[in-house]
Amino acid sequence: MLRYIAMRILLWIPSVLLVMLGVYALAFYGAGDPIKLIFLRAPGDVAYDPVRVEAIRESAGLTKPFLEQFANYLLNLLQGNFGNSLNSGRSVWAMISAAAPVSFKLGLCAIVVTALIAVPLGLVAGLNQNTKLDYTILGSALFLWAIPPYVAGPLLMVGLLLILPGIHVPYGWGGVFDARIILPLVVLSFQPIALIVRQTRAAVIEVLSEDFVRTARAKGVPELFVALKHVLRPVLTPVVTQLGLIMITIINGAIFVELVFGLPGLGRLTVQALINSDYPVILAITLIGSLLVMLSNLLVDVLYPLLDPRAATSMKGR
Amino acid sequence: MSERLLDVTDLSIEIETRSGPATIVAGIDLHVDKGETLGIVGESGCGKSLTMLSLLRLLPNKIRVAGGRAEFQGRDLLKLSRRELRQVRGGRIGFVFQDPMTSLNPVMKIGAQLSEPLIYHRDMSRADAWKRSGELLRLVGIPGAEERLHSYPHELSGGMRQRVMIAAGLACEPELLIADEPTTALDVTIQAQIVDLVKELRKRLGMSVVWITHDLALIAGLADRICVLYAGTVVEDAPVDQLFATPGHPYTRGLLASIPRVSGSTMARLSSIGGTPPEPGRRPSGCAFAPRCPLAQEVCRQNAPALQPMQGSSNAHRVACHFAGRLMSEAA
């Protein structure tokens, strides 16, 4: 198992290097000049001075050839130096380490909410296939699925403010146990819930036709325990995989939700960095994002043997 | 006459199709006495498994019982409440399924799966049930039984898994064990072991057994009585020696003739029955076997024959054929 984890991390390194090279190239050769943008956005009426611009460009090391810049960046990275933001001059590490926990906590909470709501609903729908209950659950899931976060977010926010007069504007971040997290969580969970309900339902229907479910019934196991012990566990394997994927997308930037609800997470940071062509920040986000993806995949892989003992046997072989 | 344990009368089963319900099992009559082993024989799709599954209401979706009775210990199984049904399942009637590869839950330990009937029927604690499960595994001849309780099904061979299935079926010492082609998925030497195991357990526990198979040779050494099914009806029901000595139905004769035999050094070409069984919903109006029968006359295509005692044989030997027991030359 440990060998397996080590292998996964080793294999991750070349792939993340390739991705970073691609991102660096896109930022380098693509549109947008970070230094000019500093001047454009500067407060007051700062005159655009080509000489000064080139001087700053020189001092930031941006005039060197592309590959040399990339190599320098990697060398710094190996020493734990993420560099400074071209735009604000702040340490990139400080920016990331402030934003990442927000996104991570948000993603984790959204996944917990999704799992707690969607898995039982999907189970109930699947067990009552083609009944009114099933259609109601499936219909609601499809409805949620059809609402994009950038519609749900503002609508819910405005709606709540109008209905509940005493409420504070749910804007900003106060941690996991702050009431302001509720609305973003609801919005973030809409589509994952829809997805997981449908996936759980489909998996339940498939497992119900398995021979071992018939065996359980033939042994006289009550229906409730047939559902919980024999049906639910095999269903969880694909569902956990899907939850892992959803978590990655949320952590890597729930861009709309973070912007609408003023959450200082990676999504917001990404948007700002992209607008400002802030290479060091973009690269650091790419690195962290890739790391998180790899870790979530690893987490799912580590969970597999707990859900399906056959996976444990196959992993020993690797 | 010995005591009846199970008495199925006029049981019919339908499948829902796009063009309405189609009959798969058309009025089956069969019975099992206490301590008796009944072999149910027939081709794939003749309804032998469905008949037995329907008794415990384990039929797949879209297939349902359309009529009939199935009295077990004086109560109609088809009319039991959910609660009563649950007590019969695994408690009074044990079931062993065809494919041990898929019939055990892949993510549960053997011990947990064996414990289930004990926990739900005998109100045993988890620890007691686990201990008893170990004894059951020893009963069905699994070496290192206590360690095996901690194994998962994929860590066991097919023969071992089928032994586990049998142990689960026997856990609550049921009056009746229904074994649905329990050896079909196993290789020949393991088949023999499983047959011997069931024989021995039957003697030790004094239970009745219904053994579903398509293998007449296998059932010959195991059953007291054999029911031959064709296209969802019983065509012949006879004590095993009478069935082999004087088969009454042309279909039974065809089956017997298709058992491979090696005489001396030469092996005769296998005989087979021409044609295929009718599809559900397309049953001929008279005798279902008539289109494939070498003896078929006009009367066979008009009227379906009833299951009646065969002339010149004991009352226990019943055949559903207008020309029961007659040879081909006599009929023609």
Could you name the key traits of this structure?
heterodimer, A: 318 residues, mainly alpha, MetI-like fold, 2 domains, 14 helices, 76% helix, B: 332 residues, alpha/beta, Rossmann fold, 8-stranded mixed sheet, 4-stranded antiparallel sheet, 12 helices, 32% helix, globular, cell membrane (chain A), transmembrane (chain A), MetI-like (chain A), MetI-like_sf (chain A)
Question: Brief overview, please?
Answer:
Chain A is mostly helical and 318 residues long. Helix content of chain A is 76%, strand content 0%. Chain B has a domain at 90-209: 3-Layer(aba) Sandwich (Rossmann fold).
Map the helices and strands.
The complex is a heterodimer of chains A (318) and B (332).
Chain A: H1 2-29, H2 34-41, H3 50-59, H4 66-78, H5 92-127, H6 132-145, H7 149-163, H8 182-208, H9 211-218, H10 223-251, H11 255-260, H12 266-275, H13 279-307, H14 309-317
Helix pairs in contact in A: 1-13, 5-6, 5-8, 5-10, 5-13, 6-8, 7-8, 8-10, 9-10, 10-13, 12-13, 13-14
Chain B: E1 4-17, E2 20-33, E3 37-41, H1 48-55, E4 63-72, E5 75-76, H2 82-88, E6 93-96, H3 110-122, H4 126-139, H5 145-148, H6 158-170, E7 176-180, H7 188-205, E8 208-213, H8 216-220, E9 225-230, E10 233-239, H9 240-245, H10 250-257, H11 298-302, E11 308-309, E12 318-319, H12 328-331
Parallel strand pairs in B: 3-8, 3-9, 6-7, 7-8
Antiparallel strand pairs in B: 1-2, 1-4, 4-5, 9-10, 10-12, 11-12
CATH domain fold name of the largest domain in chain A: MetI-like fold
The share of residues in helices of chain A is: over 70%
Q: Largest sheet of chain B, described in full?
A: 8 strands, mixed
Domains of chain A (count): 2
Give the radius of gyration of chain B: 21 Å
State the shape of chain A. flat
**So what's the overall shape of chain B?**
globular
* Helicity level of chain B: 25-40%
Mean pLDDT over all positions of chain B: 87
Number of strands of chain A: 0
Assign the CATH superfamily of the largest domain in chain A. Answer: MetI-like
Briefly note the structural class of the backbone of chain A.
mainly alpha
Order of helices and strands of chain B: EEEHEEHEHHHHEHEHEEHHHEEH
How many strands in all of chain B? Answer: 12
| Helical/strand content category of chain B | alpha/beta
Going by CATH, what is the homologous superfamily of the domain at 90-209 in chain B?
P-loop containing nucleotide triphosphate hydrolases
Mean pLDDT of chain A: 85
Spans of chain B of at least 5 consecutive residues whose pLDDT stays below 50 are none
Membrane topology (chain B): Peripheral membrane protein
Family (chain B): Belongs to the ABC transporter superfamily.
Domain ABC transporter (chain B): 6-256
Keywords (chain B): ATP-binding, Cell membrane, Membrane, Nucleotide-binding, Transport
